[in-house]
Specification:
It is a single chain. The longest helix is centred in the middle third of the chain and has 24 residues. The protein has 2 domains: about 240 residues, Rossmann fold (3-Layer(aba) Sandwich); about 210 residues, no CATH class. About 45% of the residues lie in helices and about 15% in strands. A 10-stranded mixed β-sheet has the order 1-2-3-5-4-6-7-10-11-12, sandwiched between helices. A two-stranded antiparallel sheet has the order 8-9. The chain contains 18 helices and 12 strands. The two termini are about 30 Å apart. The chain has about 475 residues and is α/β, with parallel strands linked by helices.
């Protein structure tokens, strides 16, 4: 099943005072030791900030140490998700960022609660995850619909079966409180933040909850907090459709394009392939067949970054020749899968555990079917649009939801916030960055007129110079600055 929607519940908790029960947590020291991610430590946080008697959990933290003599502090980084591990991300950012910034800042990565090495939540076994990802994501008969809803319901049930203690406590508001304990443990007066995609939701939540502790904040690939899960999915559905057209157009601009001779023809070939996969999965060298859902997921995955477009072309050509291996491998990349039933993390379980709690319940089977039908009417690739709606099925049957409706961000912070929007971002459409910019009155919007999900570190020198200057010197780019592709 394709599932790409982002959770964005932004509910502020009251800030902790020096005399609060949180003082022992705020005063803790991180004990760093060498590890595969640079240096690692554990942060102790309450399982439930509203009931400290329920005990603690540990948040896994990593650090890449500054290389120069002029230490300015720490920058906490988050790669997105929800559900993506972040321990290795600090090391990656430290290598990719300007050396002048790496000299003066420590980069801090972490696995958010419920993710990776931080009290990981399990909602599905590896076998169950494989089955869910490969099952029909565009049901068109009563039997297929019943099968999807039954499997979707078992995900939430699995959370409570396998991880009853942590599963109800992994929402964004809890993670926001964890962030402030991390800030305190780092001995930082204010939190510096570099967040991508869902990391902008977590960052926005912090801006609202702790407005006086906001340092230098970069929100790249912004999520609009006013949107519910179905609205987010609809925006993404349109974004990925447009991204495929841009991908096809780029291919067609070359002397020879192997996926077709016209954009209409290239789109038609993909539609024919996906329709065929619905009843006739393709064989792969791994022994696992390529189903329609996996083929759709492969296309979604490749459209995230332009440097994957060539891989998509090669995989499609192989699929047209009867071999689904390339598309299967792309789908595995998107789900952090390393083999037919092996995964590098608990990302799939954590995604649903966080996302489904963060937002109000999505519609039931009638609403999902109606949305799928409606979204597909105007979509160049209908099967992709349908799968975006049905991917919300687990959240229709989740055991608990945030009681607060999505709402515009509001903060009393005076800190300047840098928001980055990519004009043709498929996963976080540009309109979302514009919306968040309007909501956060101290923000500046930096635009990348290009393709792909998020912009910083993606090859735009213009974007990178602006972000590096802000992080290093606190200087904002000019208002409404646009960087060319």
């Amino acid at each position: 099943m394709s599932a790409i929607a982002l959770g964005s519940s932004l509910i502020p908790f009251a800030s902790s005072s020096a005399t609060s029960p949180l003082t022992p947590y705020l005063d803790q020291n991180l004990q760093w030791s060498a590890c595969a991610y640079g240096q690692c430590a554990s942060l102790r946080v309450p399982l439930d900030y509203t009931n400290l008697e329920l005990g603690d959990i540990s948040i896994a933290v990593s650090r890449t140490v500054h290389t120069g003599a002029n230490f300015q502090g720490s920058i906490v980084v988050n790669p997105g998700g929800p559900g993506s591990p972040g321990l290795d991300f600090a090391k990656y950012v430290a290598k990719e960022i300007a050396p002048t910034v790496a000299k003066e800042f420590d980069f801090i990565g972490f696995d958010p609660r419920g993710v990776g090495k931080s009290a990981p939540v399990t909602c599905m076994t590896s076998q169950q995850t494989t089955q869910w990802l490969s099952m029909d994501s565009t049901p068109d008969t009563p039997a297929e619909t019943a099968a999807v809803m039954k499997a979707a319901g078992k995900i939430g049930e699995g959370c409570l079966k396998y991880s009853p203690r942590i599963a109800p406590k992994v929402g964004t508001p809890f993670a926001t409180q964890d962030l402030d304990l991390l800030r305190s443990a780092l001995r930082e007066e204010k939190l510096n933040w570099l967040g991508f995609s869902y990391g902008t939701s977590l960052g926005t939540s912090y801006i609202q909850s702790f407005p006086n502790r906001v340092g230098r904040f970069v929100l790249d690939g912004a999520v609009d907090p006013t949107l519910n899960s179905m609205q987010l999915s609809l925006g993404q559905s349109k974004g990925f459709q447009r991204a495929f057209q841009n991908y096809a157009q780029q291919c067609l601009s070359k002397a020879s394009c192997p996926i077709g001779t016209t954009q209409v023809g290239a789109t038609s070939r993909v539609n024919t392939l996906l329709q065929r996969l619905d009843t006739r999965p393709l064989p792969t060298k791994f022994g696992s067949p390529l189903t329609q859902s996996l083929g759709t997921s492969a296309i979604f995955t490749a459209l995230y970054a332009t440097d994957m477009w060539e891989l998509l072309t090669e995989a499609l050509i192989s699929a047209y020749r009867g071999d689904g291996t390339g598309l299967l491998e792309l789908s595995w990349m998107g789900s952090d899968q390393s083999g037919p039933t092996t995964f590098g993390s608990n990302m799939q379980s954590a995604y649903y555990a966080i996302n489904c709690w963060d937002s109000p319940a999505t519609p039931g089977v009638v609403g999902l079917a109606s949305a799928a039908k409606q979204w597909a009417k105007t979509a160049p690739i209908p099967e992709m649009a349908k799968s975006m709606s049905w991917g919300n099925a687990p959240c229709s049957l989740w055991f608990a939801h945030d009681t607060h409706a999505p709402a515009a961000a509001s903060s009393t912070t005076t800190a300047p916030i840098l928001i980055i929007g990519t004009l043709f971002d498929p996963a976080t459409p540009y309109a979302w960055a514009q919306a968040l910019h309007r909501q956060l009155t101290t923000s500046t919007l930096l635009t990348y007129r290009g393709n792909g999900h998020t912009a910083f570190g993606g090859g735009s020198r213009c974007i990178d110079i602006s972000v590096n200057d802000y992080l290093l010197n606190g200087r904002m780019p000019s208002a409404d600055k646009v960087c060319p592709a």
